[in-house]
Amino acid sequence: MEAGPGKMPRQFLCPVFGSSLWLALILQSLISSAVTYRRPVSGGKRQSFLERTLILLDVNTRSPVKVLNDNFLSLQLDPSIIKDGWLDFLSSKRLVTLARGLSPAYLRFGGKRTDFLQFHNLKNLAKFRGPGPDYYLKNYEDDIVRSDFALDKQKGCKLASHPDMMLELQREKAAQMQQVLLKEQLSNIYSDVTLTARSLDKLYNFADCAGLHLIFGLNALHRNPDNSWNTSSALSLLKYSAGKKYNISWELGNEPNSYRTMAARSVNSSRLAQDYSLLRTLLQSVRFYSRANLYGPNIGRPHKNANLLLDGFMKNGGSVVDAVTWQHYYIDRRVTKVEDFLKTRLLDTLSEQITKVLKVVQTHAPEKRVWLGGVGPAWAGGTNNLSDTFAAGFLWLNTLGIAAAHGIDVVLRHSFFDYGYNHLVDQHFNPLPDYWLSLLFKRLVGPRVLAVHVAGLQRKPRPGRVIRDKLRIYAHCTSFHNHDYVRGSITIYIINLHRSRKKIKLAGTLRNKTVHQYLLQPFGTDGLHSMSVQLNGEPLRMVDNETFPELKPRTLRAGRTIAMPPVSIGFYVIKNINAYACRR
């Protein structure tokens, strides 16, 4: 049963204390043969079942409470990859392989620099590249051009294996440019970004080869003197893309509530709605894009001004968009320690923000889908050795679980690959912990969300004390794309933020079923700061540029209690349960 608009269904809050009939029956069946519980004396008999078990878990298998987009977990690339040069390396076999592992998905090309992006129908001018050290710039540019010519001769997907020296020079260039990009972001003053026709070709080739659907963010700050949107650059890009028959969806702008601080110019809600209507008309004028999807307005975190802007946008014609988009970041640059990523109060902020957005959308257009159009663990590129480590995975999986429970249709992760420390893949093209977490989610978790029933057997809280749960449990039908499991299987994913092991007993419809465990923990001596992951005790590494490691489950015998180690993440597939909600 679903909760009212903007409210999280009670069954998703865990632990849940109640006296419902299902719980009474479960408890009765579990203790029917046991004596009355007594506290054991030291050195006495073995502890009773009730003392050893913390959580009883059941799932409603009759019908899903939400049905999400098949591309629920999707990706984002920031236009900064044009300035730091990484866009030229999107043809890398390894990078395309890693992106393909997360398909099907959307790929949003957008971010803070969306509104400083200018399209020029030029093929390949070196002057539009970012600066680089003089001693290698000329040879580096020549290598890029030669690589481009080689790719042009390929048919189908254009993939490359770049020499190590070329990649090393690019990393040097990107490291210098990263300081410039970070300074711009912290000061909120941005320089223009030029997108050439060849750059657009490379971007689309990457998305197409990886099985991703490209969503392109157009510059909304290109304005006429009367503050109306100037469509000249957008129209040029649309005509070029249509001529290439590029299958693209579109956005306009990024965080319009921030324009006053970014460009000393503001766009009110009625003007923003007019701009989107104009873009829809523009798309209809280009025959190839007459039925293309349009998403927006992509507001920032729904604080007062952003929420008012969204409300006015929806009131003044926001129904022109195919889905309503917004963004959320958990942490600002003041974060300095790993414990900040484990704070349950921080994890709960997303639910509060979702409630605000859903309330506005459901007031004006209750049928509209809502997308979390840009999300990351930390703001301003993230924090080194924090937002790119295992610890950030708790925030990321929490985002997916809470968003799914509220019915958020798509979550776009910022970013798949770029500067900073929020990405899924580093600049050596190695997957970071959040990538492996995303890969498991894609392979195991389907779009049908199930109600979770949890009963905690623990001490009552002290009067006046609020318990914010550190054991978070979510359930979906297992992905139909995973042919290792028959339809009707269920995937449960669990976040254990406790510093101690927690035991979970499957009850009700889940009782006495065989379970496949996929347990993620940090690998190595760095603990939560680790940038490597182990699955069921085995480290995860790419076999080669085109081959993933085998993701082997550990089989738990029927009826066995799930033991979650401290500060860990687990996916559990309940096989052959033949859940009615998951058969169709």
Automatic annotation (TrEMBL):
Superkingdom to which the source organism belongs: Eukaryota
Xref: InterPro entries: GH, Glyco_hydro_79
GO cellular component, one term: extracellular matrix
One GO MF term attached to the UniProt entry: hydrolase activity, acting on glycosyl bonds
Annotated GO biological process: extracellular matrix organization
Family membership: Belongs to the glycosyl hydrolase 79 family.
Protein name per the record: Heparanase 2 (inactive)
Organism: Cyprinus carpio carpio
